[in-house]
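Researcher: Going back to the complex we discussed earlier. I've cleaned up the inputs and rechecked each line, so this should be the final set. Can you rerun the prediction on the complete assembly and write out the structure?
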Amino acid sequence: DSGVTQTPKHLITATGQRVTLRCSPRSGDLSVYWYQQSLDQGLQFLIQYYNGEERAKGNILERFSAQQFPDLHSELNLSSLELGDSALYFCASSVGGSGFNEQFFGPGTRLTVL
Amino acid sequence: GENVEQHPSTLSVQEGDSAVIKCTYSDSASNYFPWYKQELGKRPQLIIDIRSNVGEKKDQRIAVTLNKTAKHFSLHITETQPEDSAVYFCAASHGNNRLAFGKGNQVVVIP
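Model: Rerun complete. Updated structure for the full complex:
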């Protein structure tokens, strides 16, 4: 157990809908990262927050947004869902905000869009 | 941005043999190279990492080597065991920047 929690574990929804994925980092970690994992694309970095502020942005679609709250938990919002958004979404956390810090991954949320 | 590629995509080895996975990166300024292991249905976990000021690092049966000139780094697993079967991801970063992950290598250890 990495100490990073994600809810829900599974999510099944329909195209056009909106969902929210939640992540709680390890105690003491200030950075939260969101990744999308699909079979053909590996681990795709979406976005990073550090102590409440956006630190880095990756291949995140405009339909997706995220935020990190004062208690450091983070939410990833996915809207106008398409079939291709079906994937495993991981959250990871680290102590600092630099690329040198080990990232601890949560168990993931499996999103299925029908 | 940084682009990381891994080869081969799938590797099958007999139990007890060695496995080698190679990654190449594009940004010569990258200076941190971790490897993550993801077992089926589980989360990725860091198994070893190396910084650009060293050429090799070992931890029991696993080792990582780095060739900065050629911009590639490799994961070596010796005396492979069935529990080594997993997907292995390499990554690279320029310290203050985010990690760029490769697409992963599936390693299958045949008993």
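Model: Worth noting: Chain A touches chain B through 22 residues (CB under 8 Å).
Researcher: Good, that matches what I expected from the previous run.
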